Structures are given as C-alpha cells and as structure tokens.
Amino acid sequence: MAKYITRRVIYMFITFFLIATATFFLMKALPGSPISSASKLSPSQLAIVEAKYGLDEPVPVQYGKYMLNLAKGDLGNSFQFKNASVTELIVKRLGPSFILGSQGLILGVTIGIMLGMIAALRQNTIWDYGSTLIAIVGISIPSFVFATFLQYWLGVKWGILPVALWKDGWLSSVMPSIALAMGPLATASRFIRTEMVEVLSSDYITLAKSKGASGFEVAFKHAFRNALIPLVTVLGPLAAGLLTGSLVIEQIFAIPGIGEQFVKSIMSNDYSIIMGTTLFFSAFLIVVIFVVDILYGIIDPRIRLSGGNN
Amino acid sequence: MKNKKFLWLFSLLLVVGLFLAACGGKEEGSKTTTDEKEKEETTTPAEEVAADEEQVLNLNMSAEIPTLDSSLVTDAVGFDILNNTNEGLYRLNQENVAVPAISDGEPTISEDGLVYTFKLRDANWSDGSPVTANDFEYAWKRAMNPDTASEYGPYMMSGVIKNATAISEGTVEYTELGVKALDEKTLEVTLEKPIPYFLSLMSFGTFLPLKEEFVTAQGENYAKNSEALLYNGPFTLKGWDGTGLTWQLVKNDQYWDKDTVKLTQINYDVVKETATSVNLYTNGEKDRAGLTGEYAMQYANDPELLTEADTSIFWFKFNQERVGKKSPLANKNIREAISKAFNKDDLASVVLANGSMPANYMIPKDFTFDEDGNDFRDVNGDMSTFNVEEAQAAWEKGLKELGVTELTLEILGGDSDLSKKMDEYLKSQLETNLKGLKITLKEVPFSVRLELDTSQDYDIQVAGWGPDFQDPYTFLSLWETGGGNNQMSYSNPEYDQLLKDINGKLALDPVARWEAMAKAEKIIIEQDFAIAPIYQRGLMFLVKPYVKGVVSHPFGGDYSYKWAYIEGKN
Amino acid sequence: MSQDIQKIPADSFERVHIDSSQAERITKPSLSFWQDAWLRIRKNKAAIVSMFILLFIIIMSFVGPMISPHDAETQTLTHANLPPKVPGLEKLGIMDGYGTLAGKEVDLYELKKVDTYYWFGTDGLGRDMFSRVWKGTQVSLFIAFAAALIDMVIGVAYGGISGYYGGRVDDIMQRIVEILIGIPTLVIVILMILFMEPGVTAIIIAITITGWIGMSRVVRAQVLKYKNQEFVLASRTLGASNGRIISKHILPNILGIIIINTMFTIPGAIFFEAFLSFIGLGLQPPAASLGTLINDGNKVLQFQPHILLYPSLILSLLMIAFNLLGDGLRDALDPKMKD
User: Are A74 and A68 in contact (CB under 8 A)?
Assistant: First the structure.
C-alpha cells in the first residue's frame, strides 16, 4: 500500500507538470492580448507595456520563467487586477467557491443516495417513480434556469432567502448550493438505483436473506456497500462538473468565487489568472481522483491496488 | 406499467406547472410588492423617529475595480470610483462643464496658449496633509515613467503635454515632462501646442495628483486595497480588498468642499447579471439597476425608469485592405450601399430598445457645444441616412465596377447578447435590401476582436468609441492615416490636413476650427463612407424616486455623487 | 374422498415414460440477444411511449419548420415579442395572443395589428418561435447524438481495453486519462472554439474531447468488477478466447450501464451546449439550438415566458423520454432480469 501511494504521488507530480506545460502553450496560442487599451497606444508605447509584463520575450523563455516561478510557488501578477497577485486572488476567492461546492456536492449526493436507495428498495412503487421523477426534473432544467427560478421565487416573491450577494452568512449560500446540488443529485440517485437493483438481484443477497438477515441489514451491509462503488468513480467528474456549474451559479448569485472570475479571465486573455486557476483546479482534481482510487480499494476488496505488478 | 405512464405524465405536468407559475407570476408579483409596500408604510412612523432620512445609497456595479492607481486605470469602473474619491485641477459640475476644483480659479494662460499656470486652493488628503503642486508634478511624471508602464498616461499626454511624445518614444527622459511645481501651491504646465480642450482634460482620472511620500512609502503595496490609497475627493473608499465584489464609499471629512456632500455612505456590490440586479432592486436592497432592452420594454411606463443618453457611438468599420489584400470594401459605392441599407430607427427602438438613438453622425449628440452653446450636431445635421433606393443604386454600380454579381462579407462583432441580437438584425437587413449580398457573422470576445482589428483580418466590424475628453477631436482623430485606431487602410490627404489644422493653426480660432471639424465629419461619413454610423448608445435604469442629485457625465467617470442625496425614502 | 378415488377405473391412467433426452429439448424458439430484448421491451409501455415521443420530436424537428407558415429566420420587427396564438385554442382562453405589457393584460395581436397566427409566439426580432424551436431541436439532437456516439465508442473501447488487459496497459492508459481529466474542460473547449470556425463541429469536438473520459472510467470499473468474477474465470478455464469473453460475458453485463451512461451523455451534451451559450461561446447566430433558445428565454422569463417555455418543454420531454427508454432498455438488455 505504501509503495503504491508513493508511486501514485510521483505520477501526480508528473501529471501536474504536464498539465502546466500543456496549458501554458495552449493559452499562449489563444488569439488576443491581455493589454486592453492596445489600440490606443503607439508601437513604442505598447512595447514599454509589453516589456513590463515580460510579453516581449519569446514564448519558450516565458515558459521557462513561469515554471521557475511556479516551482517557487509564485503564480505571478494578474493583468486585469493591476495590483493583485494571482495567489492572493485565488486565496480570497477560494472560500465561497469551496463552501458552495462542498455543500452542493454533499447535499446532492446525500439526497441522491437516499432517493436512489428508496427507489431500488421499493422498486416499481410510487416511491420509485417519485424519486425517478425528481432525478429527471433535476437533469431536465439547466442550472441557470433553475437558479433564475429559485432567485425569483424564494428570493423576490416569498422573501425567504437573500436574492443574491455574499452578505448574510450561511443563508447566502443556501440557494446557490441547492442550484448546484441538482446535477449531483440526479447522477447519484440514478447510479445508486441501477446498482442497487442489480446487487439486490444477485445470489449473495438471496443467500444473506435466506440466512435470515433483516431487510435493513441486507440493504446497508450488503447491497449499499457494493452499490457505492460505481458512484465513487463518478465523484471525481462530479466535483469537476461543479466547477462548470459554479461559473454560472456564482455569476447569477453574485458570489465572489473563483468560477465567476474564470470565464472573464479567459475572455480578456489574463494569462496569469488562467494559468493559476487552471493549475489550482487541476491539482484539486488530481488529488480527488487519487483519493477516489484509494477509497475504491477500501470499499471493494476485490480490486487490488497493486496496479501494474500483476 | 400504468404507474410509469402516470410518471411521465406527472413529470410533464410538473414542468408545465413550473412555467405556468412563472407566467402567472407577473400579476401576483406586482400584488405582493404593493402589499409589502403597504406593510412598510404602516411601519414607517416608528422608523421615522429612529432614522431621519439616512443618507445612504446602495448601488450595483457591472464589473470589479481592476485598479485604483490613477496612473494605471483604463476602465470605466476605475475612472468612475476615482471621480468620486479623488479630485484633479478641474471637475465636471452638475451641467457637465469642467470647473476649477483643486485649482483655485481659472489658470493664467500665456498668450501663445502654451503655458498654463494654476494656483492651488487649500485642500487636504484624507490623511490630513495638504495637496501640493508637487503632487501633480509627481503623478504626471509617474504616468510617463516607463517603469510604471501606464497605458493611459502616454495615451492622454502625447501631443498635449510638452515632451510627452518624445518620452514615450524613448528619446527624452520622463523627468523632462512639461509640468513643474513652482512652489507649494503653484503649478506650471507647458503644452506641446495650443490645445483648446486642455482644461476639460484636467478632470480626467489620469491627471489626478498623487502624494509622492505616500506612494513611495507604500512601494509594492500601493493601491493594493482601500487602505493603501489616499483620497482628496468627496468620498473615501472602504472595505475594498483589491479584487473583491464589494466596497463602500464614505464621506471624506478632509474634503475642502465637504459641506456640499450630503451622502454619508455608498454601498457597492458587483452584480453581473441583469436579472439579479433587477431582483435586488425590486427587493429594495439596491437603489438603482441597469436594464437591458428586454427589461426596458416591460418597464416602459414605470415612473422609476430613467433613460440616459450616453456619448458612445457605434459604427461599421469598412476594412479596405484585408490582411494586405484589397477588399471589395475598397469600392466606395459598396461602402455607400451598406451604409444606407439598414433601418437604424427600427434597430434602436425595437432591437436595442435600451434608450439608444439611431446615429447618422459620428460626433455624438449632447456632447460638445460651441461658444454660444449650440450642439455640434445642430451644426452638421444628419448624414448617410437609411435609404433603400440610394443604397440599391450604389450597390448596382459598385457590383458593376467590381465585375461581380454577388458578394459574401463577414461582419465581426462582439459576443454580448445585445451585440449578437443586433448583428442578426443587421445581417437580415443587409441581405434583404442588397441583392446578391451574403453576410456571415463572426462573434468573438473583445480581446480577440482587438487582435483581428490590429491585423486587419475582417471585412466589416461593429466597433464603437467613447470620448476621452470633451472635444469632437477625440472622435475625428481616430481615422488619421496610419493611426492606431484606423486599422482599415482608410486614407484621405484632405482629411489628414484638416486634422492637422484643427489641432494646429486653427487651435486658437474656435469658429474656423468648428467649421473644419464639421467638414472633417462630412468627409468621413458622407463623402468617403469610410465608416457607417449605427447608433448612439443609451442607457436605461430603474432608479428609486428618493435618489436625488446624481450627476451622470459624458466622459471620464460615469457619475458624480458629490451632490447626491436621499429624500423621501421613509 | 379416498373411497371416490378408488372408484375411478384404472384405465383412466396412463403410465408416463421419462425420456431423459427430452429434458434437453428447447421448447421455445431460439432467440438472439436483440430479439429477446425487443420482446421484453415491447412489454414496457413507458419505454414504448417514450420511443414514440422521441420519434415524434425527431420527425417534428424536420417537419416542424416546413408546416409553419413562417420561416425560422425571417425577421418581422413589427411582430416582435408576440405571445402564442393558435386557431381554435384561442377560444378556450389559452394561447389567445394575450400577454402582459407594462403590467397590463392585453391582446398584443390586436394592439400590434397582426392578423396572422404564431403558434409558439415570436421572439425579440419577430421571428416565428415554432420554426425556431424545431430547427433548434434538430441542431441540439444532432449535437447530442453525435457527441454521445463518439463518447460511447471512444469511452467503451478505451475503458474496456484499459480494464480488461490491466497491468502496464491499464497503468499507462489511466495516467493519460488523469492528465486529460486534470485539465479543466473549459480551457480546452474555449481553445477549440477560438481556434476553429465557431459552429456545430467545434462544439461537438469540444464536448467529446474530454466527454468520453466519464464513460471510459465507468466501463473500466465495470470490467474490473466482472473480469475476476467466477463465470468469467470459468469461461477462461474452459479455454474461451479474450474476444469471446468480452463479447459474450463482459459486454452483455455492462451494456446496461453503458446505455444509462449514454442516456445521461445526451442531456449532458445538450446542457453543455446551453452552458456554452450562457457564457457567450455557443452557436453563432442566426443558428439556434435548444440551448441558445433557453438561454435567450431565461433572460426574459418574467415578461415573455413563452420564449423559454417551448424549448424547455421539448428539452424536458426529450430528457424524460431518454430516461424512460434507457430504463426500459436496461431492463430488457440485462440478462439477469430474464423472466
């Protein structure tokens, strides 16, 4: 196990390095310039500004410098925010995004698992159809439409929750979290139902039942544990999906998160923020995938973690 | 099985139900809000005793503050905030006329119009120290210092302040800039040539003073957040962390004219979605909300709707030479045909529907006035108006000259919802009115459009311009041969000569200068059809009736809150 | 009772001979995998109904723009933002051309002097929503089907090979996946769209370039789960080739999850396209998809709900149909659920 983990960690660093390299060159190939008033400047004035940001050097040199700074943990300065370093920006914006993302994921997956289990255990009853219905509605409405509805009804009409902004503490996070939870909820409930139905019809469940195990015991001890496996494999992509969701949700609810800033950075060629956030999300994803793989081995003893050694 | 059928019927019903709820929502919504208002009214007597007209304004911003270092600001939000937290030699007043601010009365101007000597009034920075002439000298030279890498410094000062052009070309040291503090309270500015609109420039953000001692002491940290800045204007900034979506302006007790300032605080939040900002407005959390066309239509009869004419103009740029190759748009008749072939009135009133006006001109309405107060627009009137017959005649002629029967042209536009909708309309108009014309649309982010513009890789571009100072020259100078904004291979020696005269030998003769500028506009639009004006932007807002005295400006910072106050909120 | 039995004559009984060869006789006609599946899915009414709904939507997406009296791209500005009006139905008080204008309920058709019918109303440029919705459905379905198909082919092949062969192959393939999955999709998508001519192809490539990873991971996990199970081991012991094990033992077992996953890919693709239009990178106008239509409609939700209603309704119908059909297919394809 320890050997496996060490090897994986080395791979993680290689992965991270490759991503950094790929993103850097891809980003440099994007058309456009980060200097917003370029057309107002004469060539000599423009040259001064470009030199200040190191944009006058050949791309490989810029790459070398960037990687050296990255190794030192320096992500550079933003182009849009002229007085802010990228690290500062990410640190400041991380909190709200993290709160929304984790709340959305936990809420969605928990309810999804519950709905999926109910559906599987009470197959072809009104419970089953009810939970399927919720899952379908969850994926039938794009999150930005759902968020607009939530904001209008819960915020403006009924006045239960704050309309938007990040000012009322935890209450501000409720609506965006619900909006974010719809995707994971649908995915989780569908997967759990499918898996549980399959597991419940397998021989060892029949055996467990015939040995007199209670319905509860069968459901949780045997069926649920096995049904969780495929769900674990989609957790990584789900977490990544929340990023996409957060771009939209944070913008609609005016939340000072990272996602809200990401699209704008790409549109305005803010190289350092694009790199910084891409690397940050990549690191996050790599770690999530790593953890998922470890979990996978713990939940399903049939999968051996020795990987390439057999 | 029956249950499953029931299931999808039920889900369908649920979805439909959601929408019906939304449709029905409108009337119910207005009802609830009136109910709430009544509720508020019944509770007011108690509150009135507690707070007698709290002078607090709550506003939305559509973007963050990228920086408040006045040498580095390039965007609307930055200039808007600076206009309220800081003050230069001049300030735009309630009538949008530049009046002396930190300058104590009008400056003395040398006979050749080259040397301006300003006396400064007694004014303080927010830390209590006095604003001195050196603060101006330092700030302006800092903006020209290559180490600062300011974009607007060289842009605003080149050709205006003595030596600025040479400094940005690297032939002269930045310390040689034509600005000098004669003593604590006397500032001498030397110009490159007489500039008739020089005093209106003095209200612009790039010309704000900076306290040298403070800036050098802060070093790297200068302007990183609201504590790392000094203010000498009506308000000071609070709670800004450099990249955040929220901040406040608080009344500045050190401001020399603080008795005029009535507001005690302005709370800002960045809200990028129109729907969200309207919802916050409806909820009473915000006092103003910008509207897009769709919303404007629905609030058409609302007493809280406010339309403001903006001074940005949008036009078609006809690229005559695409990536080194002569394009069909080099033909004047083709340009004329396209200029006249789309209905601007419908575009402004139905498609944009946000208070924009059809533009048959390049110098905006309500922007510049001659000495007798006549609008430049009244002098020059309309040009290249919508006229299908003339368009078609020119089109036939142009096609014949090119020896083709059909043309495919690309329109390069922005990627906002509004510009997409407008481009779709323009495409349909041009294709309907000009036989044999096929338009393809290309909609890209601003930075990409800028690059395509620079490399001249487009046929027709929807571009716009907002003025940087109060003179038609800010628009006319765009089309100088080889100019940084031309980027469409337009060149007319007569036009170039007029530009030279306007800022040269005619500089001190306002009447002749005015005529020359009128002629130049005619050449661009009516004679050469180099560009085809589309519309003058308008802005629509919902503003609470108790918000009074907010002044909106045609250039520089968008608003002044110096004179704003709250009345009748309770 | 017992006496009665004794009264029955002995010749009423016939002796049965047990023929051991008869036990092996196949009494039902031999059915292929797909015939069997079809037999079972036919019994699932919800799946059949869904299939008809899908068929209807697909046909309408081609026929719809043709039967409408108005063209999808003709702009009649004087007819902008009209609510739906359908002959016949208007007398019932629904779809009668009434809408709110500045807070009042008025007949907008009368107000704007329009004497034609727009079945789904018009948009802000006075274009017929009926034609546009069906045209958009066509585009969305095309994007979704193409993306789902590419995702499925690449994902199943990649995940299958990786999981089945395991070892070094799996290791290398999973490292590649990790690198791909680590790059936030959005960066790639925006790159693709800025590089290529913006349009349907760019969007399909952008969706599929990382879209297949989810499928490949699920398939790999399933293959890993099944490849060490007893029946596979038994088959291997009996000398079955890899091809036979994959096609006869593993594939049928994981077909269910592939289908469900694909059923999720299709709405996923439609949604991603909608998301792209939300951030301003969707289709280039005047082309429309359900995504761009919903995005446009979402902005005017409080005033012109019909612009959001119809594309959303069709999207929801598509989702529900795809899901129920997926459920039905899974039940039908899963060999363990044979009755």
Answer: no
* CATH number of residue B453's parent domain: 3.10.105.10
Of B445, B409, B452, nearest to B427 (Cα)?
Answer: B409
Q: What is the pLDDT of residue B1?
A: 41
ipTM of the complex: 0.84
Q: Partners of B189 in the beta sheet?
A: B116, B179
Cross-chain Cβ contact B11/A133 below 8 Å: yes
pLDDT digits (tens, 9 = 90+) for A29-80: 777 777 777 777 777 778 888 888 888 888 899 899 889 988 888 888 888 8
User: Is the Cβ–Cβ distance between B393 and B328 less than 8 Å?
Assistant: no
Chain B CA closest to residue A78: B66
Contact list in A for residue C213 (CB cut-off 8 A) is: 237
CA-angle at B66, arms to B143 and B87, nearest 5°: 55
Q: How many structural domains is chain B composed of?
A: 2
Mutant choice from C183, C217, C324 vs A, greatest count of A C-beta within 10 A: C183
The CA distance from B487 to B482, in Å, is: 7
Cβ-defined contact of B151 to A45 (cutoff 8 Å)? yes
Domain boundary among B185, B210, B235: B210
Name residue B12's amino acid.
Answer: L
Q: Find chains touching chain B: ≥3 CB pairs under 8 Å.
A: A, C
Question: Residue B27: is its pLDDT beyond 70?
Answer: no
In sequence order, the β-bridge partners of residue B249 are B237, B266
pLDDT band of residue B52 (cuts 50, 70, 90) is low
Domain C37-68+127-338 sits in CATH 3.40.190.100: no
Looking at residue C338, its pLDDT comes to 42
Q: What is the CATH number of domain A93-299?
A: 1.10.3720.10
Q: What is the pairing mode between strands B305-318 and B531-543?
A: antiparallel
B to C CB pairs, distance under 8 Å: 119
Backbone angles phi, psi at A125, to 5 degrees: -115, 180
- Asked if C177 and C216 count as a contact pair (C-beta separation under 8 A), the reply is yes
Domain for residue B350, yes or no?
A: yes
Domain spans of chain C, in order of start = 37-68+127-338
CATH number at residue B113: 3.90.76.10
Instruction: Return phi, psi of residue B244, to 5°.
Output: -70, 170
Together in a domain, B377 and B501:
yes
> Do B170 and B319 share a domain, yes or no?
no
Residue range B348-377, pLDDT digits in tens: 888 888 888 999 999 998 888 888 888 888
To test the contact with chain C by mutation, choose from A233, A249, A265, A280 the residue with the greatest count of C C-beta atoms within 10 A, namely A233
Inter-residue contact C44 to C331 (CB < 8 Å): yes
Tens digits of residue pLDDT in B135-191: 999 999 999 998 888 888 888 898 899 999 899 888 899 999 999 999 999 999 999
A residues 118-147 lying closer than 8 A (beta carbon) to C? 132, 135-137, 139-142, 144-145
The answer to whether the Cβ–Cβ distance between C186 and A243 falls below 8 Å is yes
Asked if residue B440 is part of any domain, the answer here is yes
Chain A residue with the nearest C-alpha to that of B31? A157
Answer whether residue B345 is part of any domain: yes
| pLDDT one-digit tens code per residue, C11-61 | 888 877 777 777 677 666 766 767 777 777 777 777 888 889 999 999 998
- What is the spatial distance between Cα B502 and Cα B520, in angstroms, rounded to a whole number? 10
Q: Is residue B431 part of a domain?
A: yes
Q: Is the pLDDT of residue B318 over 80?
A: yes
On chain C, the residues whose CB falls within 8 A of the CB of A240 are 181, 184-185
CB contact under 8 A, A26 and C188: yes
Segment C270-281 mean pLDDT: 76
What's the confidence (pLDDT) of residue A301?
A: 60
Residue B352's domain comprises 310-538
Query: Domain spans of chain A?
Result: 2-71, 93-299
Chain C stretch 202-241, residues whose beta carbon is closer than 8 A to a beta carbon of chain A:
213-214, 217-218, 221-222, 224-225, 228
